[in-house]
Amino acid sequence: MKIAIHGRNFKEETKPFVQSMFDTLAQKNIELQISESYQQFLSDVDIIHSSNSFYTDKANLFDADVVLSLGGDGTLLDAVTHVGDREIPILGINTGRLGFLAIVSPDKIQEGLAEIFAGNYSLDQRTLVSISSSLNGEPLDIFNGVNFGLNELGIMKTDSSSMIMVRAYLNGEFLNTYWADGLIIATATGSTGYNLSVGGPLVMPSSDIFVIAPMSPHNLNVRPLVVSTDVVLDFEIESRSSNCLISLDARSKVVHSNVKIRMEREKFKANIIKLSGTNFLNTLRSKLNWGFDVRN
């Protein structure tokens, strides 16, 4: 079996669990490849492992059977960009702070590995967004070819005082003009992210929808809108500062406000490993304290 590993910094108390994971992988003679950024951190904290193969991006990621993501949800979003259209299954191990996607706790790593080795897991196929953009009629590659994301597209102001104006079109038909601090267009997976913070709805991950959620809209009658993933969305932007911030999951870039953005469903999906005994409803109850009496 071939396993690729990507991660971020973890706290000292997490170190024994991570070292135990690498010990188990070595005992099982698993062929490993580790992202270079994570390898540097592992070296700094004296984690011992058997890998002498490292990768920087999806171009030199080997043909893994599984990718392990050690961190929070942001780390898993990185892993999705590493995998790209190869659709390699990804297991999220939560050594970070938040885990709607990375739901395996450090003390459950060994149980998770056992299920991986036994093939005792299913795959949640998650919809991705795909964007293309142009500036003054010329193609613009904002994110250097990695123009897809698992959570959301964000169109936001850069000036702390002025709103931006975003004209939105659905399948070529005018939808609305948003005067707001920005606009979030989230997948069902991303409904627990930025979308939730700006008042958008929670959505079951298997739903084939996008949520268009304005950020602090000037008109209070403008509410989040749920649309099918079959649609094509186009956005035109105006800003007093002549620029805006475009984000795709954890990546962002300031561009001229003359930019035009097109968003649609990506042709491929992200395969997130779902272990036995885990489900989205349990995660919601745990992370959002549903069902707990917190009145006192």
From TrEMBL:
Active site per the UniProt annotation: D73 (proton acceptor)
Alphabetical keyword list: ATP-binding, Cytoplasm, Kinase, NAD, NADP, Nucleotide-binding, Transferase
One GO BP: NADP+ biosynthetic process
Keyword presence, Transferase: yes
Gene Ontology CC annotations of this record: cytoplasm
Residues holding NAD(+): D73, G74, N151, E152, D181, T192, G193, Y194, N195, L196, S197
Gene Ontology MF terms: ATP binding; metal ion binding; NAD binding; NAD+ kinase activity
InterPro entries named among the record's database cross-references: ATP-NAD_kinase_N (IPR017438), ATP-NAD_kinase_PpnK-typ_C (IPR017437), NAD/diacylglycerol_kinase_sf (IPR016064), NADK (IPR002504)
Subcellular location, principal: cytoplasm
The protein's required cofactors: a divalent metal cation
One of the Pfam families matching this protein, by short name: NAD_kinase
Superkingdom as given in the UniProt entry: Bacteria
Subcellular location: Cytoplasm
Reactions accelerated catalytically: NAD(+) + ATP = ADP + NADP(+) + H(+)
The protein's Enzyme Commission number: 2.7.1.23
Similarity field: Belongs to the NAD kinase family.
Reported function: Involved in the regulation of the intracellular balance of NAD and NADP, and is a key enzyme in the biosynthesis of NADP. Catalyzes specifically the phosphorylation on 2'-hydroxyl of the adenosine moiety of NAD to yield NADP.
Protein name per the record: NAD kinase
Organism expressing this protein natively: Arcicella aurantiaca
UniProt gene name: nadK
